[in-house]
Structures
1.
Amino acid sequence: MKNILVLGAAGQIGSELTMKLREIYGNSSVVASDIKLPLSEALSQSGPVEKIDATKAEEIALVVKKYNIDTIFNLVAILSATAEKNPLLGWNIGMGALLNCLEIAKENHCALFTPSSIGAFGLNTPMNGTPQDTIQRPNTIYGVTKVSGELLSDYYFTRFGVDTRSVRFPGLISNVTLPGGGTTDYAVEIYYAAVKGETFYCPLNKNTQLDMMYMPDALDCAIKLMEADSSKLVHRNSFNVTAMHFTPEEIYNEIKKHIPSFKMEYRLDEMRQKIADSWPNYMDDSCARKEWGFSPKFDLSLMTIDMLETLKSKI
Ligand code: SER
């Protein structure tokens, strides 16, 4: 990776991935782009910024040529719960951006990273130890776009040799930019409530177990996969990756170890519950570990210490 373009740099992953890429590959080598400017001060002052609507191919192509881009991180997506409220928008944004990226990557010989998700699985997928290669019949439009994206990306690799790579991210927990509109957002919001001394109203029931990952591991994961030796990759689109799995009750109890007065009540969000019930309890990520050395560092307890410390100094 020499010249990198991040699409969706203002989002939950993009805001941190862009900074990390700039740290590694040099500020001027990483172009941050989003549909809306200005970006945060950190992003706009540390390197090049371009306004791009990723559903418009010509806008991406112009920037790819201008900066001689060789790697694209396509982080454009509408998360699960928001997409469910406006399925056509979810499809048009997710697939529109991806198809444009694939075509531009093909023409300009770029490598392309596009995250997939635990949302790419559905009710008839094995829920425990979900295998790398298994049934993928998701019940949400978000999941439908993710599976379609996995298939299209593999097609562009086998048919045209485009270097497409992807991981199925679990719920991502971070302290810089809020996710917004996902089913796993509660696992971020709970920390903010705890630090602010507020009661947390949990939208999922207490037994809902889901895979999760702390953002520093997610960033390492995306970069490590893009740097991996392509001859070692048996799979491409997309690898199961997970760092931990827990229920609302378990994350609540972990936070209470540090803030004993913290209170949580359940206020079910039916749509989110239905979505969460169709996703794995925990995935088997042995292929990612074997094929490119995926190895996350944060478990629930380490992540909780770091989240609480960081948010305390931020809020
Ligand atoms: N975090 C996403 C969501 O909840 C799943 O990939 O929509």
2.
Amino acid sequence: MKANFSASLSAVVLLICFASCVNERKPQDKKNEFITALMNKMSVEEKIAQLNLVTPSAGTGPFKTKRVMEKLKEGSAGNILSVMGSVERIHKTASLADSTRLKIPFFMALDIIHGYKTIFPIPLGLSCSWDTVLIEKTARIAAIEGTAMGYNQTYSPMVDITRDPRWGRVMEGAGEDPYLGSLVARAVVKGYQGDDLTDETSMMACVKHFGLYGASEAGRDYNTTDMSRLTMFQSYLPPYKAAIDAGAGSIMSSFNDIDGIPATANKWLLTDLLRDKWGFTGFVVSDYNCVQELIAHGIAGDYKDAVKKAIDAGLDMDMASEGYSTFLKELLDEGEIKIEEIDQACRRVLEGKYDLGLFEDPYKNYDPEKPAKVTLTDENKEVAKLAVCKSIVLLKNDNNTLPLSKNAKIALIGPSVNDQFEMFSMWSQTGDKQSVITIFDGIQKLNEKVVCADGTFFTDDPDYLKNYGRYEDAEQLQMEKDAIQIAQKSDVIVAVLGESIAMSGEAKSMTDISLPGCQVDLLKKLKATGKPVVLVLLNGRPLTLGDNLQYADAVLEAWRPGTMAGAGLADVLFGNYNPSGKLTMTFPRSLGQIPIYYNHKNTGRPYTEGEKSAFKSRYLDEKNDPLFPFGYGLSYTTFDYSAISLSDTLIAGENNNLVVSVEVSNVGEYAGEETVQLYLNDPVASVVRPVKELKKYHKVFLEPGETQRINFKISPDDLKFYNSNLQWDWESGKFIVYVGTDSEEVKTASFVWKK
Ligand code: BGC
């Protein structure tokens, strides 16, 4: 009887379970049902509005949308970029959605690139920390500050691989390496989007610029790119893929063409690769005015044709050109495109809004008091200060000029030492200038004996200076004189030189990336005083410093540091923080070496410096090697590396691992952090392989006298590359492993691995 009762009880339980499983809808089904029901209510015009992104700002292109607010209100535009101002104004703009028939919330997009109000160092600088936990934190803070203002999408991260510092936009990315670039891409996406996109502090990431924009020919912005599929897959595509795998909800098509077809109309890129191969389910927005620009590229006869080509290729949203809102309906009526194309793009955009939770709460818990509570908090500033410290790269330190003594009389000289705005970059338009700690203030807080002077203009280019409304030779001479006067009375000179804010960023390509003549003049005169000179560089790209390095005893690369500029820099100058940054872009000796990057292929005639033979791959008038290689960066202490030990030198099979290890010792006087880097080379393969590729790295903090063994686990995955059939695979044979402090100063060992 008892047994019978328990049997029937379990049957009932099973039945209940089954019934509830049948009733329980998966989140994906719920989403599909919701979107389908919504789309069933939408007219074609309403669907097209979802694909239209307008902007009230001057923007970065020739097209300026008219009647922006009216369009949002009447429902002919469903998204807006760069509405700025007070939280109330932004909210009022977002609320215009309520006056449309279906009240579909807008994407409120903005370029939040390296912080919203709290500005962090530029992404190139941040990447030099090689600290993905810190980088993720900076993105999280940017998301918290940005969402509090009402933004729900940011056009970041820029993950373009960059090998040409003439291109002004190298400042926006993580440099030249696909492995590190992928880790940074993932960290930034995670930071913006958090664990749950519907959270009120989560902002949708938009990965850009898809694709290959970093390879703009000759470093000229908006220019064409041309590369082999092998290079594309091996070196340029991985960071986009990593960002997508990390869950980025949107991606931006780039300005350039790929294999002759502009990215914005490139079906291979936007559909075959992105959707069919990589499985991306978010939406693609064009870059600024790209749809219209298909005409100038020469692949569309007129505007309507451009729109057809873009939607056919798989472009979902049109930024600022308003081609979609003008021509999609006409194209549909004429039978030139199918309704399924509009539906598909509209569905993707609506899904993005759904994923963000906007249909539940369009304003993500709007509270006009929130920005004041969450922006520029002490905690945010602390992270920003640490980010400044960690992004700084010590390039030179003769005679231990650095760190400075806190009692030294310091002459602080440079055109931006007292300038808050100059600590920002082209992409810090939302930053709070008043909160910036200038270099002078930062140093003065730790050493009251500092005095300062401008010393020079940024440049002697009269055209450039006209924009600043000043240029007089006499004025320049007077500035130099004043600076030298204070320099003579000092114990040490800190010269802050490099680029002004207006010299890097979008549309800031340069054919000369050396220090401007007037700055070099000043530097020479400062050196001639006989006082030690510390050169602090503020810039958005690697510079060709060449012979000018001799006029400085120590050099710190401090990028464009942001809100906590002076505080972070002062900590590094006085040794409160021992610099640990490592370059993520090679510094060339001269312009003629560009493009120059560490993971280049070998040639049939590789040249070794000093060799006599003439018919080798080399320059007559310049060395092959860079001024500072990828991964380079000194410390106030010295790290010693033991020889490499390998767990095995002959390994067989796919399921095996190899442990590569070194002992790293701090043999100097300061505690410090070292980034131990591991590179691999496959010397004999079916395709030519790079001379070295970064495969792993490990950050270790060591007290003076401390030693740690660092172990790296290598698996066959680390040996894989794209072969000539574009298959991602590895080949048996010998491999060379390098471990060291940068991509050139390494210990070497080798092993054989057979399939
Ligand atoms: C840039 C993008 C940016 C967009 C919107 C374009 O000119 O290339 O990176 O997101 O403008 O501001």
